[in-house]
Specification:
Structural class: mainly alpha
Length: 125
């Protein structure tokens, strides 16, 4: 799987999610020769160009925002690594590409009022 295919399958909604997806790709999905534990602003900007996404104004601030959101950890100044929260976002929350299958939506039961709730009203005569 190449970077473009992976990012398009995950379809991140924000720049922070995009940074997490790119960090995940380079950590776990990239070919062995291209794998890296950390990403930096230049890698994120190159990834945006390869994917066909709008270029980031300041990729370093995007990485800092992704860190503040909890998706990335700061390793050294300017280098960031994906953490457990970011991994869970990419693996579980974002689409997997095979989401054409319609899954049933669980309906919540309506809350019923019971006699134990509150005090009963008195009737006035």
């Amino acid at each position: 799987v190449d970077l473009r295919t992976f990012v398009l399958a995950k379809s991140p909604r924000s720049d922070n999610q995009f940074a997490a997806v790119v960090a995940y790709y380079y950590r776990f999905e990239a070919p062995f020769a291209d794998r890296r534990d950390t990403i930096e602003g230049g890698v994120l900007q190159t990834a945006a160009r390869l994917v066909g996404r709008k270029r980031l104004n300041n990729p370093r601030s995007t990485l800092n925002n992704a860190k503040a959101s909890g998706y990335l950890d700061g390793v050294t100044p300017g280098e960031f690594a994906i953490n457990g929260v970011g991994e869970k976002l990419v693996v579980r929350s974002l689409p997997t590409g095979d989401d054409d299958i319609v899954r049933p939506v669980r309906q919540r039961k309506a809350a019923t009022r019971t006699e134990t709730r509150g005090t009963p009203r008195r009737k006035t005569i």
